Amino acid sequence: MPSATILGGIAGPDLDRTERDFFRAADPWGFILFGRNIDTPERLRRLTAALREAVGRDAPVLIDQEGGRVQRMRAPHWTDWPAPLDQAERGERAVWLHHHLLALELRAVGIDADCAPVLDIARPETHAFLRNRCLGTDAATVTRLGQAAADAMLAAGVLPVVKHMPGHGRAQVDSHHSLPVVEATLAELESTDFAPFRALADLPMAMTAHIRFTAIDDAPATASHTVIGLIRRSIGFDGLLMSDDIGMQALSGSPAERALASIDAGCDLVLSCNETLPQMESIVAAAGPMGTDALRRADAALALRCIPADQDIAALRAELAALGGLLA
To answer: What kind and span of H or E run contains 294?
Structure first.
């Protein structure tokens, strides 16, 4: 049974023997890649194949490929995409084309899940680390464009991972460095921040927010049994729920303590992006094997992976370019 983890502490563009042996023993549910793992398309295909070979199954390989500042695969081998908020200004078709073409590039090198789209609502006070990664400044727009983005990725054979549930748009600090605290009332959150996630609750995968809602709990959402319960019941999300990266400093404690807190709160999976092999060993031990509900949700998500239909990619790129949605 896979461990309740997605691991990304791979040092470079090739999987070395020590890493291979560790992953074989740890058996994470999936993997996540970063810029340090990206070289040429051929080398990247070898890496994704080697990761799956290490665990002996068609494990999902994830990446953060949104556009703008957050994209691990770049020119000259792949497209440099505009930021999602900029693309959103060009309309729903541009958003669909952006995410579909992006996902086809991922699928071609063996990556079959993308940590996108962001369903947070951009506000004037939203911290710069997040603001232009959003798809709009109101719940209705984010919902509509988020659905277009997710549909586009699924049609390309790539699973979308919506983030950051139940809403990160009010954050005024960067959760990579400290814990954002939101003092909005529950009624305000229900009617705005939570709304896109509730509307798209049937999507297969989501990532939590490292953010504290004072109206709900003292703990960050990722480590809050109350917030995860709200995600499951009030928002209605019964898909596969992973933590955001537990290496971010919004969380406290050792890597193992952060992993255990996430699982105890109700996350299905712990996401570890940059930890060392000894740290990952402690995370795997703390997270334990996937539970029955987590396995059910994981199987439902993986069943949506498909081989994309043949299409005229040049024509789709030309259409997006005509909308102003490709960088020069």
So the answer is: helix 292-302
SS3 state of residue 16: coil
pLDDT of 328: 64
Q: In 3D, which of 91, 67, 118, 104 has the Cα closest to residue 324? A: 91
Per-residue pLDDT of 76-114, as tens digits, reads 999 999 999 999 999 999 999 999 999 999 999 999 999
3 state DSSP class of 135: coil
Count of Cβ atoms closer than 10 Å to residue 221 Cβ: 29
Indicate the residue type of 124: P
- How far apart CA 191 and CA 195 sit, in angstroms, is 6
CB hemisphere CA count around 280 (13 angstroms): 26
On whether the CB atoms of residues 64 and 113 are closer than 8 A, the answer is: no
**Per-residue pLDDT tens over the stretch 4-42:** 999 999 999 999 999 999 999 999 999 999 999 999 999
Distance from the Cα of residue 62 to its chain's centroid: 8
Say which DSSP state 170 is in. Answer: T
Please give the C-alpha separations between residue 104 and each of 163, 280, 307, in angstroms, as whole numbers. Answer: 21, 31, 10
Q: What are phi and psi of 130, to 5 degrees?
A: -115, -30
| Residue among 217, 266, 265 at smallest CA distance from 238 | 266
**Catalytic machinery residues:** 176, 244
